[in-house]
Design goal:
By secondary structure, the chain is α+β, with helices and mostly antiparallel strands. The protein contains four helices and three strands. Helices cover 29% and strands 14% of the residues. A three-stranded antiparallel sheet has the order 2-1-3.
Amino acid sequence: MGINIGLDESGSAIAPCRDLRRDVRKVHLDDPSGFEEYLEYDIKVDLETAKGAVGDWDAFLKRNRINAETDAVYMDKVKKDEDRKILEPLAVRETT
């Protein structure tokens, strides 16, 4: 019987690169052209459009566990596939 042990140095508490790997910096760019692949996006639908599209608003909020006081419907929060199919054509992709 053999035992294989793999060590990951960067996972060690005393690894010199550990702090550098955990340090994430964000910057604001006035012109993000050339950096599109690195941008973070929110895919969302404004409230009025979503309310008109889904029908029973209270049932929609309850089945997807979305806070009623939200400023928009974020697509990553919509859990039900039926609701996603309705809202995806109406969604807008915005940079954060």
